[in-house]
Amino acid sequence: MAMKIVMTVCMLPVLPMMFGACWFLESEKNGTQFGITLWNGAREQSEILEIKRIYKKELKRALLVCLLMFFLTLLPEHESLVITGMMVWTFFSIIYFMFPFQRANKRMKEQKQKYFASLPESEIQKREDEILIDVTAAGADKPQISKKSLYAGCVFTLLAPIAELFLYCLWPCPWLPELWICEVILISVAGAAWCFPLYLKFYEKQRTKVFTYNSQVNLQVAEIRKYYWGRLCTLLVWLTGVFNWAILASFYVPAQWFPWLVGVVSLIFGMASIGAIVYYWKRMDETSKKYLAQECLAQEDDDKYWIWGMFYYNKSDSRMMVEQRAGIGITCNMAKPGIKCAFILLWIAIIGGTFGACGWSILEEFTPVTLYYEDGTLTAKHWKAVYQINQEDMEQIILLEEEPEIRRQSGTGMKTVKKGDFYSDTYRRDFKVCLNPKEPPFLMIESTDGKWYLLGSNDEKITRDILNKIQP
Q: Are 365 and 414 in contact (CB under 8 A)?
């Protein structure tokens, strides 16, 4: 039950976030609607208003379907099935929420085709031949973003794994996993923070976007956008740093509070990051509109390069990144071979890693734990031999009718299998564990080298028979 509560707290907020983001996509952006460049009189057409109404209706339906599916994933009793269901639900929800926008994009495209079919051929030819290039803006010096605070935030984030090297030795916590596991977690978060200065460096190299026929206005808007992008990235770096230090602090709270604290901290970090992105993007958009309000927009009709209004594919464009047509942020030019390969590899890694981990958890939970004694050697097996103890290496062996209270440090801790390194507050010692908690009794063994083992099998009779063989 605790795991289901944690999953609900961590995963359910994703649903209203996706719904809110998709609802935001309905608004017009830089002369485009649902990824389609608006034509003369499009805003007043009743067909466009109907497309918006249908889009919102389909979004509400998607919200209800995904909410129902979420609660269905909580029905299985086995943890591995719940985790797998959550992963399937996440991928399904992301894809399902894209369908209303894709259908709205298709309807807008059909309306636009009807409009241009009614125009004289001379006007259509003029529209096709018009190409806009701002040579002045393209050749101007690009403004640089101050990065002192940005790099200071990166260093602040990196200090967390360095501090853990000392805290792990000075302030030992019995339930903590091995040092390298803690370091991998903290360094991974710190590494994510260093992606922001790399992104800004790449962003500064992009060519100036043409917004109007006035080169000076284009340069001013570009400078405004780079300023706000720099502020946003700096704030996200510092938020990531605080998040990393919060994870470090959570390592040293009582074990029963750890999952709850990490869940709450992750939720706050996610909400704060989303809030920062929305705030700075609105500021960027509002400030840009002040400069663009008095100018004639030079909106190039490049609908054919936008797949579903979401994915940019233009072989003749030298840019690797462009601004999204709907919503906030940027997207990659999928026509670039490097971007295409990276995108494919990324999805293979995400899908393969996610469902590989789900498959592993299912095998972990449903593979039985076995215990057998042969030729003077006691072997605990789960998939393969986990622990082997020779009889002459056994200092003492005790039969426990109930499982002692133990907490995982590293390894597997499920309802049907516990395997790895655990700590017991009752006995105040570490244990090497391999057992099925639902199948007592268990053997508590001390070896001659001072290690303690807690072993069991899926059959009570087998466990007792083994004890009788070792201690006849």
A: yes
66 and 89 Cβ atoms separated by less than 8 Å: yes
Tell me if residue 29 falls in helix, strand or coil: strand
- The pLDDT averaged over each successive group of 10 residues in the chain (472 residues) is 70 81 81 82 83 94 93 88 90 92 91 80 51 45 67 93 88 74 89 88 71 71 83 93 92 79 84 87 80 64 82 82 76 86 90 88 89 90 86 91 86 87 87 92 92 91 90 72
**Cis peptide bond prior to 100, omega within 30° of 0:** no
**Please, how many CA atoms are within 13 Å of residue 160, restricted to the half-sphere of its CB?**
28
Distance (Å, whole) CA 146 – CA 153: 13
The Cα 139–Cα 98 span in angstroms is 38
C-alpha 58 chain-centroid distance: 25
88: its two tokens:
């399937």
Distance CA(8)–CA(23), nearest Å, equals 23
Check if the beta carbon of residue 212 is closer than 8 Å to that of residue 297. yes
